[in-house]
Each structure stands twice: as structure tokens, then as C-alpha cells.
Amino acid sequence: MSIPDVTRPDITRNATNAPYWSALSQGRLDFQHCRACGHQWLPARENCPNCLAADPQWQPASGRGKLVSWVVYHKAYAPHLEDRVPYNVAIVELAEGPRMISNIIGHPEGQGLYIGADVELAIARDFGLDLPRFRLQSD
Amino acid sequence: MQGKVVISGVGNTVYGKHPGRDRVDLIVEAAREAIADAGIEKAEIDGVFVKMANSSPTILYGQKVSEALGLQPAIGCALDQGGAANIGLMTYAALAIDAGLIKNALICYGDTARTGSHAVYHRPRGDDAIMGWYSTAAGYAMIHQAYRERYKTPDEHFAAVALAARNHGAQNPKAHLRLPLTMDAYLASPYVIEPLRRDDMCLVSDGGAALVMTSDGDARRRGNVRAVPILGMGQGQESWEVHLRPDLLRTKAVESADMAFAQAKIDRGGVSFAQIYDCFTVTVLQTLEDYGLAPRGQAGAKALAEGLGLGGWLPFNTSGGLLSESGTPGLQLIIEAVRQLRNEALLQVNGASYGLISNQGGSMHTHATLILGAAG
Asked: What interface predicted TM-score (ipTM) does this complex get?
């Protein structure tokens, strides 16, 4: 029996989101597309939040997006973050429409970030997972 | 509602720290005061409406509170709408009173988030916590950033909100934090989640609060001349997580205010004061603009230039709000409005005739609006 590592966060693992994490481990960011109404979204759901059809299909994102907003944590809200502050958390809107919570690499304190900045996917291995982070296209 | 239902009594504990006390006992203490203030017997309460405790959601909580009050009410329930729940509960209680289902409703809340657990405010935000996305405050920091970037808002505009609340709370002997704030101290206040400074963030407090509602007819029959009429109530639930909203600076607070003002049939310029849910300073600027009391992006400039004190543009959070009186979620704002409209407030607005109150919760996920008239 393994001892849970309380200093490291984890994700919920289920059949609905397995394709999302599997794609990231293969170097791709996928989002869901509704075959009934065409709506596109994240995070993973069984049903389309627009038309409620149970007919979603995973599609690869271009990896391009825009910065919607960001914050810089100076306080660590969990023990595993104590040696990471300051770090940023950002909202990114993918070119295909879905929005997600992410990090902008290379700008831990948010210097040089601005709303509407063009960003591109930069998958990073962290906490034993392949995480969908972004970098500024201008970097 | 237009005055058919009234707030007949109010009560609250001291706010701040109550180490070792149970949240339900804080509710009973506040309820005892509210029931006495209403001039009724405890046994006349036939509706118990409780806001879920932020720090410890509990099943059958309305029944747990009723048991502690020694009551077996016709209607008893708990509601979770985050910080909008108190006006939410009042709305459902008012409908039940107006329909003749119950006569006297107790609306109440108590929590020990300060000396007990405040883990809820530091919580990992679902699977996105893997990206470092933690805490209630972070959602507001995202909104604060979007606000200041869109409107090029200087820090002083956010500070105007914090200074007003803190300076009012400093004069309230029951307030949790009685420390006035200066502009220099605000600007020197450290970032917690940038752009949020410590002084942009509300307190986390222990305390209990309660109010009693009844019909206008019943209050008059009892000769309760201090009953305060409910003129309008509104709600609007944004519901979606901050990052999934099409625009971070638009919530359903606009629709909530429209609903309440349409029902109250009063002009927005006619409100005598506003008790605005000031969990974070940006929330106040957003709410004042959503309510049509200032143009978009200009509430802070107006607050800075004209003031939010008794003689200012709009007397605001006259007992200190969440930033100074108590970080408990919202009932204290309604109680202060009642005291203003009875002409019993510590910092009394002269001739107060209409009071405007906002409640909201989550990261602006929920919103509710209340408009009250003068007693008598």
C-alpha cells in the first residue's frame, strides 16, 4: 500500500477526462466538440453544455490562444507551493473558443503580460503529469 | 413585495473571534436578540431559514438549528447560494409569508470560520488546482486584474472603497476590525494574490446574525412601529466559473438590480445609502456600476472624488461591511440597513428613506439585491 503524498496535488481520473490527459501525454491539447450543435468546450463533460446532446468528440487544438487575465500568487495556499511563489495563474482562451486555467511560463511575476497577448501551448512535465502551460508567442 | 412583508426584528453577536464556541450556539444567541426585538414569542416562529455554514456544509442543517432553538417549524431549510444566500432565503420566506403558509420567519447565519476552519477559503479549485489555482480570493484577483486593465484604474480607486469601509468600522464597537486605514497604508499593503493587496480582502470572522420577517398586517396589529418594509428583491445567478465567463466584468448583478428596482418602483438615484457586499474592493466597484449608480469603470474615481461617507456621494457600508465589521457573509449588511431605516444606526444617514443592499457569493457566481423602505 502506498502512502498518499499530501505535498503533491493530483487530478480526478475518470472515463470522461481520460482522453484529455492521454492527449497531453502525447504532446497534444484536445478539447471537446459537439457533433449535434458544433459547440466547443473544456473541461471534459459527458454532455454538451449548450444543446445537452451526449455526442461529444475530442479534437486537437491548434495550441494558439490569447491571454484573458492573470494573477500572481505571493502566498502559498498548499505546502507544495511554498517553494514556488511567486508564480502566475492565467486564463487562456484557445483560438477554437474553449477557455482554461493555465500558467504562462517565463513570467513568474507577471512582468510583461497584458490582456489579449498571443500565447502558444508549451506542455510541461510537472507533478508527474504533462500539464498544458503556455508561453507568449513573442518570447 | 412593495411593503407587504416586513423585517420585524434583528439581532447579532459581537463579530470577530469566538474560540471554542459552536456556530449553532452563535445562531441561537443572535436569534434570541432578533425574536425579542420583533416583540414576539419564540413559539410564533413557524419558518426557520438558515444559510449553510461556509466552513462546514452539513446535511439537515435547518433541522439542526431548529432543534437548538427548540422549534418544530412548518418550513425549515438550509440554502447554499454562497454569500447571496441570505437575501435568497429572505425571498423564499417572503413568498411563503405572502402566500399565507407561515407567519413569522427567522433568517439566520452563524459560523466560526476565524477560530475554526477557514480551509474553504483556501481550497483547491477542482482539477485546475494542479496549475496552482487555489483559494476564493484568486477568482476575485482575476476580475480585479481584468477591471484595472480595461479601465486603466489606479490603485487609489480600489483604496477608496477599503478606506470608507475601514473608517466606518473603526467607529463600530461590535466590529471585528476597528483600525482605520490611510491611503499610504493601503498602498504599502503587501500583495497576497497580485493585484489583490491584503487590504482589498475582507476579514474572516466568527459571528452570528439573525432577523425576523412577518407580514405588514401582523406587524401593524402588534404595534411594531420599527418594522422595516421590504420593497424589492432580485436575484441573478452568473453560475459559471470565472474563467468560463465570456466577459469577466459582466455578471447577472445587472439583472438582479433591475428585478429589485422594478418591483420597488423607486428611482435608483433615490437610495439614501448602499450596503454593498464588499468581500473584495473590486466587487464594490463592479456592483455600483452593475446597479447603474456609476458609469462603467468610473465608480472608483467617483468614490475617491466625492467620498463614500455620510456626507459623500453615496453613504456606503456604514457599519464597516465585510472589510471591517465582519467577514461573515452578508446578513450584517441587511441588519445595518434595518438600523438605518429605523433611525437607530451608530453612523446615521439623516432622513434615510430607501436602503439598497447587495449580497453575492462564490467568485461573483451568485447575486441578490434587496431594497428596503423606512420604518413606520
From this structure: 0.95
Residues of B in contact with A17 (CB under 8 A): 127
DSSP state of A104: B
Per-residue pLDDT, A1: 40
Domains assigned to chain B? 5-115+205-228 (3.40.47.10), 135-197+230-373 (3.40.47.10)
CA distance B192 to B141: 9
Query: Mean of the per-residue pLDDT values for chain A?
Result: 94
Assigned fold of A62-139: OB fold (Dihydrolipoamide Acetyltransferase, E2P) (2.40.50)
Task: Decide if B266 contacts B354 (C-beta within 8 A).
Answer: yes
Which whole number is the average pLDDT over A93-106?
98
A77-87, pLDDT tens digit by residue?
999 999 999 99
Inter-chain contact B193–A17, Cβ cutoff 8 Å?
A: no
What angle do helix axes B281-290 and B253-264 make, rounded to 10 degrees? 50
Residue A6: pLDDT band (50, 70, 90) is: low
- Asked if B145 and A71 come within 8 Å (Cβ–Cβ), the reply is yes
B247 touches chain A (CB under 8 A): no
Determine, for residues B242 and A43 on separate chains, whether the beta-carbon distance falls below 8 Å.
no
B143 touches chain A (CB under 8 A): yes
Shortest Cα distance, chain B CAs vs residue A28, angstroms: 17
Cβ contact A89–B135 (<8 Å): no
Residues 6+ apart with CB under 8 A from B88: B79, B81, B235, B359, B366, B368
Asked whether the predicted pLDDT for residue A5 surpasses 70, the reply is no
What pLDDT is attached to residue A7? Answer: 60
To probe the interface with B, which of A42, A66, A73 has the most B CB atoms within 10 Å?
A73
- Collect the ranges in chain B with pLDDT lower than 50: none
> Any chain A CB within 8 A of the CB of B130?
yes
